[in-house]
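re: ur question from earlier - yeah i can do the single chain one, its not a big deal. heres the input i used so u can compare w yours
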Amino acid sequence: MGGPHELSVAKPGSTVERLLTWAQKRPRPAYSVVAVVAAVIGGTVGPVMALLAAGYCSYGLSIVLKTRRARLVAKLRDRARHEVELLATDVRAGTAPPTAMLALAAAIGESGDRATVKIGERLRALASVIEATGAPAADLLDRLVADLNVAARTESTLAANTAGIRASAGMLALLPLTGPIVGMAIGADPLSVLLETPIGLVCLAAAIAFQSVGLLWSSRIRQAVEAQAVTS
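and the output i got, formated as tokens:
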């Protein structure tokens, strides 16, 4: 059976990975730094562009961090399930069940992920049942493994069901950029109209408002689907 160190994600090696790790641990300072840097760069064009750059870069960082977090969590959960499977095999080979189960529960509990922490709590509960009643540890662990495999399939189905929502949100975020890009491609100057004329500023403000509402709506729909899947 693997030790507790096997349940932790490998430490980042590249500079980008270290920065992303820092951003995930301290999101507020990370968003502030990104927003300020983007605003300074965008401010060379004008104050409106500074606000747009800060907003879009902050949103992009949130997408990157969420995607990275989801991948790290998936790795932690897969490793936790694998460790439980190995534990069931070790118990059949003669390992003392309660001691090994409590050790693995402690290792899993250090991950910080809610789902893996629950796996650790279930292991502690099973160890208490085994000590109190003498129930067959291998059979109980096999049932836990089966439940974890079902949960893994549910997570995969949920990811597939919400893929369309995530794709729609990404398109919604990028779609406003296509108009100015097409305009510049055909020789027009849409940025001057948007940033330097009253009607352009009104249209820009309305576009930002509608886009923000749309992104928030997409996020609420995705969260509702995920919550329903968890409770069902």
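The CA atoms of residues 127 and 133 lie 10 Å apart. not sure if urs matches, ping me
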